[in-house]
Amino acid sequence: MLDVGCGSGRIGEPVLEAGAREYVGIDFSEPMLELAEQRLGRFGERARLVSGDFLEEPLEGSFEVVLALGLFDYLPEPDAFAARMHRLGSGSLVASFPRWSLIKGPVRKLRYEVIDNCPIFDYSPSRVRELLEGAGFERVNLTEVGRSAVLAHAEV
Question: For the chain, which domains are there?
């Protein structure tokens, strides 16, 4: 399993506890990877953490499952990420995408863009489908999670 934008490894822990053979997490944030190391260190060689840019870091092999949870929120150019996920995948992609909502949308924009100077991006279900199919994924299934998110499951 490959977790793109793994952050603190909070997804890796239950995945490894459930018996995943291998977990590879990649993130560019050293402080988050330090937290992930603390959380996942007990799994030994089954957990590997990579520091760097997903588009540039060499990643060996192919992955049955590629995760991208909470990642696309921050990508101004998501197409290259989706294409690389497709190239590295051999099975499924599970990814989350934020949607604009009248309740959470303005609060997120204020918090991230105005206060933290961190641009964020929203997606419509049709944009998610276009992005993933354009990257080569097949059987793109979308589940709307409330009014503020879309969860995608796609196959290579």
Answer: 2-155 (3.40.50.150)
